[in-house]
Design brief:
37% of the residues lie in helices and 18% in strands. It has 226 residues and is an alpha+beta fold.
């Protein structure tokens, strides 16, 4: 006999499970971007020691490259100051090209293997990406191709995590004022006294996507979670 569970319960279960399996930081050296695989500005396939991993950046969010997730698109339109969803998608394609160029050579992945869910059945995990001493998340925000809004982490360590996030918010404010990247045509204006964009509580859109994948899979087993 099958029990019925609300969709929100299933999402919460996988949020807890994903956080439970996340452990200490691990370093993957000499990584490369996997060729001919799906990617966008903040999520991509990585090759390391013969294995293919999907990683999603901590801390930041790039414009979408399609309109599959209207809630996120609407939120990005507001944050980037763009009037149309097509402008978000166009910016997303440019963010993807920025990341592809930035990761053209070898790079380092720092990960706790925290579940980033997503719309692929292949596991996806959150990560920090470094090319030398340059942090991909910082460079995306600095160049205006990402917003300081994403899954947080105790990086570089617990005592400095807030300082790192604050730094990203300052970088985004600079990108808005300089009208670079996705902010080139922005309608967003900051007050002279605003040295950083306001801090926002992170909304885990990924859990909604992951919950739908779970529902689709369980439907095949005749288990009703509605």
């Amino acid at each position: 006999m099958f029990r019925k569970f609300p969709h929100a319960v299933i999402v919460c279960f996988f949020l807890v499970l994903g956080n439970a399996v996340a452990g200490e930081w691990q370093t993957l050296e000499k990584c490369r971007l996997a060729p001919d695989q799906y990617m966008d500005g903040d999520s991509f396939h990585v090759l390391h020691e013969g294995k293919n991993h999907i990683f999603r950046l901590y801390f930041v969010d790039c414009p979408e490259t399609d309109t599959s997730f209207p809630k996120r698109i609407a939120d990005q339109m507001e944050d980037f100051g763009l009037a149309k969803d097509t402008a978000v998608v166009a910016a997303g394609e440019k963010a993807k090209e920025f990341t592809k160029k930035f990761l053209a050579g070898q790079f380092t992945v720092l990960t706790k293997w925290e579940d980033a869910r997503g719309n692929s059945r292949q596991p996806r995990n959150y990560a920090v990406i470094l090319v030398g001493k340059k942090n991909l998340a910082e460079e995306l925000v600095r160049s205006g191709w990402a917003r300081a809004f994403g899954m947080p982490a105790d990086y570089p360590d617990a005592s400095r995590a807030k300082s790192f996030k604050d730094g990203l918010r300052r970088l985004q404010a600079n990108a808005i004022r300089q009208k670079v990247g996705a902010f080139a045509g922005t309608s967003r204006v900051l007050a002279p006294t605003e040295t950083a964009v306001p801090e926002r509580e992170y909304v885990d859109y990924e859990s909604e996507i992951g919950g739908q994948i779970l529902q689709d899979g369980l439907n095949g087993l005749s288990i009703d979670f509605n």
